[in-house]
Amino acid sequence: MVERAEDEEKWLAAGIAGLQQNAFYMHRALDSNNLRDALKYSAQMLSELRTSRLSPHKYYELYMRAFDELRKLEMFFKEEARRGCSIIDLYELVQHAGNILPRLYLLCTVGSVYIKSKEAPAKDVLKDLVEMCRGIQHPVRGLFLRSYLSQVSRDKLPDIGSEYEGDADTVVDAVEFLLQNFTEMNKLWVRMQHQGPAREKEKREKERSELRDLVGKNLHVLGQLEGVDLDMYKETVLPRVLEQVVNCKDEIAQFYLMDCIIQVFPDEYHLQTLETLLGACPQLQPSVDIKTVLSQLMERLSNYAASSAEVLPEFLQVEAFSKLSNAIWKVIEAQVDMPIFGAVTLYSSLLTFTLHVHPDRLDYVDQVLGACVTKLSSAGKLEDSKSTKQIVALLSAPLEKYNDIVTVLKLSNYPRVMEYLDNRTNKVMAIVIIQSIMKNKTCIATAEKVCFFY
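Structure tokens predicted for Vacuolar protein sorting-associated protein 35 (454 residues):
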């Protein structure tokens, strides 16, 4: 491994040296306004990115140096366009570069200037570029090329209020471009998993994790488009993204992309498309950490509900509690090997959501506790500390929300959950309950209600 790392440092150093040498000659050509030499040396400079010897981490270092040089080249192309050089001719000229990878980097660079010149509809140039990039099918090289395309085009997408919006160019074209680029990048990313010997699987997974944000960048840009309203998100964006997530059948990609969807799009959109989003969960690979995905979704929705009382009717309208409850039940039933900790974590998140959205519906709160009891009944007394801590958090939530033990006494499943705690943890819960009674100066009217907990 040490020898491999040393070799890689040498390869990186050689790549950087070659890149810098050609960049020097490219700058000299730019200073003398020699377009043909500038293209010649820039293509030779970009040929260093053809290497297959570097890990993604080291390749990124090489790519960033090339990226900085390409920004200078882009500025030169802009100046050429201002001086009257035909950007259409330039766009055709760079397509004569000998090797396909340098050719496509140059094409994306000129394409960015081409869109800015408005000599052609933005959608036509974007479509041409995203399709031409299919010429690179090597996963790492293809991912970085498409990442570059995404970077140079993101401020030139036809969006509402954008200077690139017009009769021929609309936000629909921007969405189509981003979805197509995302789809191709995800395919390349997933393909990395199947390259190389089985013994290096762990190493490949680590490398793939390092590259995930390149893929997710497309979704981040989609989430920032002004023109992507709820209808477009519901009818086009979410179905297309989920189709790719489900069909790729890759654990790493599915977990990361579900998290991306939850984080980058607005809470209101999640609420209004809850059924579609939750419907994808049982279709994910069994090894995907679905409890974390659902917990993050419920946390976002809980915070959304807490942000303003005005949004609460939306939750009732879409029957969010019912949909989340059913989704959790389906996931737990489908994943028969899910640890108790995972199931309790899901119910704890659902309880937090319920207390935020439906604090007055004690029947909902008790229903969540009852579902938890059903799952716990197959486990007996809990032994592992993670599950025990999660149960304590679950039981503490109603106390913290209502600040009234008398209200908690109305939850018939509350003491049934406590039955699954060991003696030591039961004492901890007893202290929590007593502290709540003392803090709120609660008066318990009858001995029968006191016995409720024993």
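The chain is about 75% helix and 0% strand.
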